[in-house]
Amino acid sequence: MRLIMAAVFLYAAYTKLREPWLVFAMSIDAYQLLPQWAVLTLGRTIPWLELLLGLLLAMGIALRYTAAAAAILLGVFFGIMVHAYAQGLKIDCGCFGLGEPITARTLLRDGLLLAACLTLTFLAVRQRARRFVAQENKLATQS
Amino acid sequence: MASPGAQIKGRGTPGAPVQLDVYSDYQCPACKALYERTLVPLMADYVDKGKVYLIHHEFPLPMHPHAMEAACYACAASRVGKYEQAGDVLFRTQDSWAASGKVDQTVCSVLTPMEAQKVRVLAKDPAIIAEVQQDIQAGRNANVSATPTLILTHRSKQYRVPGGASYEILRRFIDQLLTN
C-alpha cells in the first residue's frame, strides 16, 4: 500500500511538473475558493510537495509523519472537490493534470485514495507503537 | 481548430503567437461570466494587440432550450459582419432572453432594420444550422463536453484552460508563454 501511494503521489507530481506551473494554478483558481496570492503560492508549491511525499513514501522514511501529511493533503483536496461537485461547478479535478472533470467517478477514486492513506497512517502509527512497547518491555526485562 | 466548411469566427491577428479557441453556449451562465470577466479584457489587452488570436466556436448544450437558436442567430449575424455585437448582447442580456425566449428581439436590437431582415432569414437557413452542427462536432472531436471550454495553443502545444480561471491568472499564463 505504501508503494502504491508513493506511485500515486509521484505520478500526480509528474503530471503537474511537466506543464508550466500556471496551468495547475489555473485549475486551482477554477474552484473559486482562494485569493490570487494563495492560488499562485499553491500552484508553485503543491507539485513539489507531492513529489517530496512520493519520494518519502517510496523510501519509507518517517512513515507515520509522511503518511499523515499525505492523508491531510488528500483530505483537503477531497473536501474541496466534494464542495465543488455539490455546488455544480463543471470544472477539472486538477488531480492528475487538466482534462479530467470532477465526476462521481473521480470522487470515488480520490475517496478511495484518501481511505488508503488513512489506513497507511494508522498502520504506521500502530507499528511504531508496538515497537515502542516491545522496547519498553525489553528494557524492563533487562533491569 | 475551425470546423471545416464553417466560417471562422475569429478576432485578432490569425498569425498571433497564441491562439485561444473558446467553445461556449450563449445560454450558459458560466460562459456569460467568462465572457464578461475574462474575454472582454482579454480582447482589449491581448487580442486587439496582436498577441492572441481568439476563435469562437458554437457549442449549444441540449439542456438550454434557446441556446441553439441563439447560436444560429449569432452565426447569421456574422454574415452581415455583426457577430461580435450579437454575441455581446446575447451574453449581457442572457438572463432576460433565456427566460423569455426572445432571441430574435435580442439580436436584432443591435442590427439595422435591413440587417435584421437578412439575419432573420439566415438564422433558419440549413447552411447556418449545419455550421453550428459542424462546430459542435468539432468540439466533440476535441473532447469538449462542457462549456465553457478553452483550448490555448502556443507553438503547436495545446493547453486546456479551466473555464473558471480568473483573467488575472490566465493573463499571467499567456505572458509566460509570450515571454518563452
How would you characterize this protein structure?
The complex is a heterodimer of chains A (about 140) and B (about 180). Chain A has about 140 residues and is mainly α. Chain A contains five helices and two strands. In chain A, strand 1 (about 90-95) and strand 2 form a beta hairpin. In chain A, helix 1 (about 1-15) crosses helix 3 and helix 4 packs antiparallel against helix 5 (about 105-140). Chain A is elongated and about 65 Å long. In chain A, about 30% of the residues are buried. Chain B is of the alpha+beta class. Helices cover about 50% and strands about 15% of the residues of chain B. Chain B has eight helices and five strands; from the N terminus they run ββαβααααααββα. Chain B has a five-stranded mixed sheet with strand order 1-3-2-4-5, with helices on both faces. Chain B starts with 8 loop residues before the first strand and ends with a helix. The chains are: A mainly alpha (about 140), B alpha+beta (about 180). The interface of A and B includes residues 26, 36 and 90 of A.
